[in-house]
Amino acid sequence: MDSQEDIVYPNDPKVGIKVDDDLKQLFRGIELPRDMVDIEKELQKNGMKPATNTAKRRAMAQVHGIVSKPKPKKRREISGRTKLTNAHLPELFQNS
């Protein structure tokens, strides 16, 4: 690892950090550019390294004729070992 700047930590709900309402309003009031290329240029202008290179990725996709499309969602199939229960309807499964 080059530096600790590249480390990202998850939002831990156990840590009780209180954020001032003024800071929240300031944060929410910032508008970001819609295009990732513009965001990456702003990061580089401020001396930060973007995690991705969108311009390069788009150029490579154009050269190779790759069209970005959403990934199809995998459908989970029920295996024979899966036990199905309807815990919210217990009266249907009581032996009368």
Automatic annotation (TrEMBL):
State any single GO MF term: translation initiation factor activity
Q: Where is this region: Disordered?
A: 68-96
Give the UniProt entry's GO cellular component terms. transcription factor TFIIE complex
Which residues, if any, are the signal sequence?
A: none
Ordered alphabetically, the record's keywords are: Initiation factor, Protein biosynthesis
Q: Which GO terms describe its biological process?
A: transcription initiation at RNA polymerase II promoter
- Protein name in UniProt: Putative transcription initiation factor IIE subunit beta
Q: Which organism is it from?
A: Cocos nucifera
